[in-house]
Amino acid sequence: MWTVEEEISLLNFLKKVVGGACSVKGIKRSIDNRGAYVNGRLERFASRRLKVGDRVEFDFKAEEKPTEALNLYEDEHLLVIDKPSGWLCEEKAIRQKLGNVWLVQRLDKETSGVLLLAKTSEAKNQLESLFFERKIEKRYLALVHGAMLRNEGKIESPIKTKSASTSWKCLKKGKSLSLLECSPYTGRTHQIRIHLRQIGHPILGDLLYGLRRNEKGVQRLLLHAHRLQFKHPFSHEELSFEAPIPTEILGASFD
Question: Candidates 3.40.50.1370, 3.10.290.10, 3.40.50.1110, 2.10.220.10; correct CATH number of 2-63?
Answer without folding.
Answer: 3.10.290.10
